[in-house]
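Worked Example 4.2. Consider the chain below.
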Amino acid sequence: MTIEDQIEAYIAGQPEPKSGELRELHRLTRQISPTCRLWFLDGKDDAGKTVSNPNIGYGSQTINYAGGKTREFYQVGLSANTTGISVYVIGIEDKKYLSRTYGKALGKASVTGYCIKFKTLADIDIGTLEEIIRFGLETRGRHE
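Applying the procedure from the previous section yields the following structure tokens:
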């Protein structure tokens, strides 16, 4: 199964209205960066144990770990959670940047160092979320 097929199956497997909202966010992210690398992580570790919610990733970056190891990973992620949807902006060094820059304008969402959680798209300002996704994919100077 291709990554695109895995993404579609994941989105289709969510209950409405969550699946429609995930589909809209996927479309929006692809519109922002149509040629970015797509990822699909099923949430399982190498032993097959579930360790996180499945997630869709967009873009590509190299993450540098303290011990000198590096890993390629996505820049922006999208995932369903038990109460709604999470959007991840990976690789932000300033853990207060998202909440300080976008928190008030975003609307009814929980914003942590790299994660934005909200119940439904109706609760947030979609234009602000689009700015955040653009920031995650484009403005930090990383190449796709």
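The first strand starts at residue 38 and ends at 41. The radius of gyration is 15 Å. Compare this with Example 4.1 before moving on.
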